Amino acid sequence: MPKPAKPREREVQAAQEPVRFGPLANYIGFHLRRAQTASFQAVAHRIGQADFTPGLYALLTLIEQNPGITQTALSRADGRDKSSLTPALSGLQKRGLIRRERIAGDKRSYALHLTPAGSAAAAALHRHAQAHDDELDRIIGLEHKAQFIRQLRRIVSALSADTGEDGPDGEAQP
Amino acid sequence: MPKPAKPREREVQAAQEPVRFGPLANYIGFHLRRAQTASFQAVAHRIGQADFTPGLYALLTLIEQNPGITQTALSRADGRDKSSLTPALSGLQKRGLIRRERIAGDKRSYALHLTPAGSAAAAALHRHAQAHDDELDRIIGLEHKAQFIRQLRRIVSALSADTGEDGPDGEAQP
DNA sequence: GAAAACTAGTTTGATCTAAAACTATTTTGA
DNA sequence: TCAAAATAGTTTTAGATCAAACTAGTTTTC
Question: Which domains does chain A have, with CATH numbers?
Fold first, then answer.
């Protein structure tokens, strides 16, 4: 990502610094995407050294918190399509971080577990994630954090209501 | 997106409704991604009939608001890498929605403009976008909207500070 | 007790994305 | 001035994502 480095004068208005956002400036969706992208990139750079992405971290954590979870339940919890999980989980398995066990009563589904290596990786990633979220906490302000997360969750549950999804209803605030 | 349809009892804890989110429950970044995904999908379904994506809509609007903008400036304003814009803009040009004019003083860059067809498409999309954002407004509450957007923008500008990006500083609230 | 409907997971196809390498041009600075 | 550094945009590469089609196994229903 190259620094913009003082752009020179131009006859074309738009090449200058001040860009007009028009209706986008008032759209929650637009700012949501920009904030998410920025956050994603920041974490990705933090944990990219260890060959992880924020998405893989979320999978490891959800499996850690819910040993034996199935892929479909994991997909719902993570808000990603189950077909997206297939290659991600294969990768984690190939790296020896998770196990997939057949469930006795149902030969269709797998029970997912972390391996010891997976637990270790998760522990290391938690530290990075915590550091990143501390930064976000500073940006948002701890006194606003609870409400901010509540608002984000409300968006998730309201917009995916028609798809029957459950919003993250875990333990909310410390 | 299939409805989950009342899951039956299982011996595996995790297949049940209540999924534990652990540290993720308190991570702004996690909820940010989930909210953004949900919002993106909702808009995509709305405007998908017309073969548009939220990303294409943002490009059209930014070009509409900043006639003659260059691709690099557009990339910065939209928060996406310029290489991502190349195919998107080629598509818009092929569909006759934008023009790319060589800039007199600089043979490297293009000045982007909407065609009349592009303006018409943008107008139609604005209606969809407005409808979607009205829904988000209801979810967040108009009395909280300004602060919510301010928080999202703070995340963008704080996290991309090292990359030299400018946060969206357009006209803020109505 | 089958046939039909449903569920779990994978495969395939189409998009979208960032990053790095590359070409062409412009600016800088010694 | 002219070589080096910087900038605009494209190409290439690799990876992620969803949706739909598919396979295999399970439940429902008549």
Answer: 42-124 (1.10.10.10)
